[in-house]
Amino acid sequence: MTAMIEQLRKKLPYWVEASRVHTCDGQVASYIPELAKAPRDALGIFITGQSGETASAGDCGLTFTMQSISKVFTLILALIDNGEDGVFDKVGMEPTGDDFNSMLKLELVEPGKPFNPLINAGAIAVSSLIHGDSPPVQIERILRFFQEISGGASLRFNDSVFRSESATAHRNRSLAYFLKDNEVLGEEIAVEDVLQVYFKHCAIEINAEQLSRMALVLAFDGTDPLTGRELIPRRYVQIAKTFMVMCGMYNASGEFAIRAGIPAKSGVSGGIMAVVPGQFGIGVIGPSLGSKGNSTAGVHLLETMSAELDWSIM
Ligand code: DON
């Protein structure tokens, strides 16, 4: 066991409690009604290292839906299914500086082509690229892929969250219809089918430990260090990590890159997946969100740890 994990085990409980006060700076997401049930003052973190060594603290028993964190892995699966050209024909490679569900830039540059695969419009386009004859087949493939990356965890969909989002997702529907109108979604693709795939992968339920295992595979360039199996081609992990640094925390990505300097991806349920390349996979849950949709306490915790442990890759 490394000296670092010993240090983490000792200090983690203090860092978590020092960051927990920042749950007061935010609110639990409520635009998906089911998410509003999450505990506002919760904060937990789970860290997994190369040999399976772990450190954890706080409320890491909490389960939550992946929401936007899932977009990293659907991007990777779409790359595996279609190659780089197939994916980047439909989505761009640039950060937007706008909110995650913004439609502002969709009409500005190449009409209808989303700027990147991590904003909602881009992730909806990516969902349409997952191979499979029907939404149930695509959804099953996504779930199986996620389970494999998480080291064989038995993940499931949270149906209440799925239904809650599907019933209220007027903005995502309008983004998807705009994509359809601009032929980013092909002729054979039904908008409601793509949305079903998108809402389902956002509603995959996970906990901080499982999330840290998924992050660990990214930390080791696509190979699960615990089994030695290559699960993702290294090139696709490079692409995913680059997007995480550029736009994983949406329009707070620049600030997070300056302060923490590690690839990370947040979701509106309050989860954050963070990667310390060559060292650790990290799962954080803190449902209280700031104005840009990131966990307030989770961001504070990761920034504190990165500064203390010199994790920045920059
Ligand atoms: O499409 C949505 O709005 C959600 N299913 C996911 C958004 C999200 O997680 C953005 N995160 N910060």
From TrEMBL:
InterPro entries named in the record: Beta-lactam/transpept-like, Glutaminase
Record's keyword annotation contains Hydrolase: yes
GO molecular function terms listed in the Swiss-Prot or TrEMBL record: glutaminase activity
Enzyme superclass (EC): hydrolase
Superkingdom per UniProt: Bacteria
A Pfam family this chain is assigned to: Glutaminase
Enzyme Commission number, as recorded: 3.5.1.2
Keyword field: Acetylation, Hydrolase
Subunit-level organization: Homotetramer.
Name of the protein this chain belongs to: Glutaminase
Gene source species: Paenibacillus solisilvae
